[in-house]
Amino acid sequence: MDRLPALELEYVTTGGRSREWPRGVLGGAVFDRLPRRRAAAGDPGFPVAEVSMPVLGEAGEVLELWRAGEEVRAGTHGHVRYTCSSDVLFGSVSLDEHDVPAVANPGRHSALYQATARAYRDIFATLAAAGHPHLVRVWNYIPDINLETHGLERYRQFNSARQEALIACGRSVAGSVPAASALGAASGSPLVIYFLASRMAPALIENPRQVSAYHYPARYGPRSPAFSRAAVLGRNEAAALFISGTASIVGHRTMHTGDPVAQTRETLRNIEALLAEAGRTALGRTLPLDALAYKVYVRDPRDLPLVRAQLTEAIGAQAPVIYLEADICRQDLAVEIEAFGSRAREWS
Hints:
Blueprint: E1 8-12, E2 25-32, E3 48-51, E4 55-56, E5 61-67, E6 73-77, E7 80-84, E8 88-95, H1 111-130, E9 134-143, E10 148-149, E11 152-153, H2 154-168, E12 179-185, E13 191-198, E14 203-205, E15 230-233, E16 240-246, E17 249-250, E18 253-254, H3 260-283, E19 292-298, H4 304-315, E20 321-325, E21 335-342
Parallel strand pairs: 2-3, 9-12, 19-20
Antiparallel strand pairs: 1-5, 2-5, 4-20, 6-7, 7-8, 8-13, 9-13, 10-11, 14-15, 15-16, 16-21, 17-18, 19-21
């Protein structure tokens, strides 16, 4: 496959859900201060992941919208709702962990473990059925991500279940793993996962400043996080870059604990390193910071002005950015940033 239609990302902040949708919408995710207000919203005809996560700043609701630029078809498989074009698939799954039947060892594993295992098994079954086998980018939203239950932090429970599901489905747990993020959603909300997959295998990118997450030492949990630092899908002018959730980590250690300004700067240095590596290995040129769209997760809303000032200084005021209040996978991290860029479009 030599060509992939260019993917497009848009953040819709006002009245977007009631408008007439353009051709080729794959799906999206909606973030809101008061997610219960969305219950009355109509079905737009494509999957929309409902994430219980407050938007910071002026916008009351943000819809993250993905388009493929060509006709799409919709379907469901297990708990997954999806839409796909000829080459790209967008899917979402939302599971109340207490409503999921146990899939293995119910006495030993938590409800979150069971929900995660079920979600990922359904995701891989969907990819096989739809003929889009390559998982490219995954967003995981886990309620109470830092809470310890069953003798283990819930993020580590999630990592164990994800890795066990990968193994059970014949997938790699290191190297050939998708770009991903895992953030803490509101207490009591469902486990929400949405993802992009393709018929084309992505180029997977690691950060030379960091230990690959799938090689983290055992101090970070019994099972390592199974994700790549970035992924590039497509070639030439249609190539798209997905940067995973990125934080103030050098090697495998958190840097600048207690200093959100220094953590934001370190995070941006890591993103610059990923841009250079992606440019060297897959894109053919290095995208500038201001050519990306960003999603920024801030643990303490009081840090928003500090984090936003650092980001604006680095990327200017024109690049699309949304800020969300979220717990981050490590309790000593104040901020996490993910990004998307495409050679087909520059934002600034």
